[in-house]
């Protein structure tokens, strides 16, 4: 890719100082993109339950490639009631660690609408969990089913 960029710069007439500034910017952007590609965060939503009045879903977060000390999925669990505004929902669990088996046991085939929210807090909590082993004690680990685990959370 850099070879193509260099060839393009030779074809385009521009002052030498501008050419070097553009080249430097491209090098910085490509190195930042490469660093970001090394640790990619995957995010998805799964529906946990859907009745006529209530939808419960989990927002799932996972750092890729998977780290040996983190075989889990990190979830935030929500509930939305029929008739509520799209921005109104109840957070059932802020940050829960879920085993792959529990995640699969929690998934239902029924489709339902999920809603967007700000996820800055969960991403920060997930990073803290990854970087600080002492923070892991504060995050519950679910090994059965997400909704069962939410019911058993301390109030």
Throw out a few tags for this protein.
about 160 residues, alpha+beta, Cathepsin B, Chain A, 2 domains, about 35% helix, extended
Commentary on this structure:
This protein folds into 2 domains: 2-38; 40-151, Domain of unknown function (DUF5086) (Cathepsin B, Chain A, Alpha-Beta Complex). The radius of gyration is 22 Å and the shape is extended. It has a 5-stranded mixed β-sheet, sandwiched between helices. Residues 1-9 and 31-38 have low confidence and may be disordered. A hairpin with an 8-residue loop joins strand 2 (54-64) and strand 3 (73-81). The protein has helices at residues 2-11, 16-38, 100-106, 120-131, 146-151, and strands spanning 40-50, 54-64, 73-81, 90-98, 141-142. The protein has 5 helices and 5 strands, in the order H-H-E-E-E-E-H-H-E-H.
Total domains, how many?
2
Average pLDDT for all residues: 81
Can you say what the CATH homologous superfamily of the largest domain is?
A: Domain of unknown function (DUF5086)
What is the multimeric organization of the chains shown? Answer: single chain
- The end-to-end distance, rounded to whole angstroms, is 54 Å
Can you count the beta strands?
5
Task: Work out the helix count.
Answer: 5
CATH topology of the largest domain: Cathepsin B, Chain A
Helix content: 25-40%
For the record, the CATH architecture of the largest domain stands as Alpha-Beta Complex
Strand content of the residues, in percent? 25-35%
Global geometry = extended
Please mark out the parts with pLDDT under 50 across 5 or more consecutive residues, or reply none: 1-9, 31-38
Radius of gyration from CA coordinates: 22 Å
Structural class: alpha+beta
CATH classification, class level of the largest domain:
Alpha Beta
Q: Can you write the helix and strand succession as a string?
A: HHEEEEHHEH
Main pleated-sheet profile? 5 strands, mixed
Q: Taking strands numbered 1, 2, ... along the chain, how are they ordered across the largest sheet?
A: 1-2-3-4-5
């Amino acid at each position: 890719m850099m070879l193509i960029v260099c060839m393009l710069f030779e074809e385009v007439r521009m002052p030498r100082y501008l050419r070097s500034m553009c080249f430097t910017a491209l090098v910085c952007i490509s190195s930042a993109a490469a660093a970001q590609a090394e640790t990619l965060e995957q995010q998805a939503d799964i529906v946990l339950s859907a009745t006529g009045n209530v939808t419960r879903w989990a927002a799932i977060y996972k750092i890729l490639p998977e780290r040996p000390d983190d075989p889990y999925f990190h979830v935030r669990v929500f509930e939305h009631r029929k008739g509520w505004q799209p921005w109104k929902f109840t957070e059932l669990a802020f940050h829960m660690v879920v085993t792959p088996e529990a995640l699969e046991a929690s998934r239902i085939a029924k489709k339902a609408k999920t809603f967007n929210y700000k996820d800055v807090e969960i991403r920060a909590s997930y990073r803290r969990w990854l970087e600080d082993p002492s923070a892991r004690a504060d995050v519950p680990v679910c090994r059965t089913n997400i909704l069962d685990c939410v019911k058993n959370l301390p109030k």
